[in-house]
Amino acid sequence: MSEREFTIEEAGALMPDVRAKAAEIVRLRADLAELTLDLHTVGSSPMGGVPEAKAYEARLQEHVTWFTDQGIEIKGLAPFLVDFPARRGGRSVRLCWIEGEHDLAWYHLTELGFAGRRPLD
């Protein structure tokens, strides 16, 4: 299957869903981290045990799958970072969004990654 390429408009239209799903991933990520720490250090947690940890992992995977099904690349879970494959000026780029940002406002050359981020405007 070939890689999907997004226009800025297509990626922007997905941003409400991206932000909502990213917020849920951030919440699940924090809950799972806290539960795991409790289980490893204390042996129990008010958040549950191993079955609850597995449930958090499964829910995280469901959200991750939504992104990959859309053709969005997940570049990091902590912080949560995604790229939308695109073309700009005939070059392969990634429209780039990281948790905490409201809008899709950055891109970078595919070869450069996050260090090469530039504003879209």
Overview of the molecule:
With 121 residues, the protein is of the alpha+beta class. Helix content is 45%, strand content 23%. The chain contains 2 helices and 5 strands. A hairpin with a 7-residue loop joins strand 3 and strand 4. Helix 1 packs antiparallel against helix 2. The longest helix is centred in the first third of the chain and has 34 residues, at 8-41. The protein is elongated. The model has no long low-confidence stretch (mean pLDDT 95).
Shape designation: elongated
Low-pLDDT sequence parts: none
Strand order of the largest sheet: 1-2-3-4-5
Helical coverage, percent range: 40-55%
Number of distinct helices: 2
Tell me about the largest β-sheet: 5 strands, antiparallel
Structural class: alpha+beta
Give the topology string: H per helix, E per strand: HHEEEEE
Strand content: 15-25%
- What is the mean predicted local confidence, pLDDT? 95
What's a concise summary of this model?
With 121 residues, the protein is an alpha+beta fold. It has 2 helices and 5 strands, in the order ααβββββ.
Could you list some keywords that capture this structure?
single chain, 121 residues, alpha+beta, five-stranded antiparallel beta sheet, 5 strands
Write the layout of secondary structure elements.
Layout: H1 8-41, H2 50-70, E1 73-77, E2 80-88, E3 91-98, E4 106-109, E5 118-119
Antiparallel strand pairs: 1-2, 2-3, 3-4, 4-5
